[in-house]
Amino acid sequence: MLSPTQSQSRQLLKQCGILVGTSIGLFIILCIPAYLFVGMQAIEGLAYANILCLVPGLFIFLIAGFLYRDAEPVAVMAISTLVRLMIVGIGTMVILKLRADFGLPEFLIWLLICYFASLLVETLLIIR
Fold it and tell me: At residue 39, what are phi and psi to the nearest 5 degrees?
């Protein structure tokens, strides 16, 4: 029989694995329309957007798994939303500052799609 900490660690790894897997799957699926409609620059923007949205989810799962084991899902979701907005917002400003040629079709539309998809997966994993 697994101890509670081993069980929680396995659950944490499972959640992180599901989030990473769906993020990779979303990237693969969105590569086709990104390349067809905009070109290689959109695939680069899609990669940045995907990484920007994956990092806060992994960060939240690690925090929730190690620090807030007995926290209510609503509290975790509130913290998750705040952390996600801060990381993605700051990351977006940095990317747009470094890559001034990125605009709506090259980066921002993919950021919105990845943001809401990763938020959906993260929410489903937290409330289960």
Answer: 120, -165
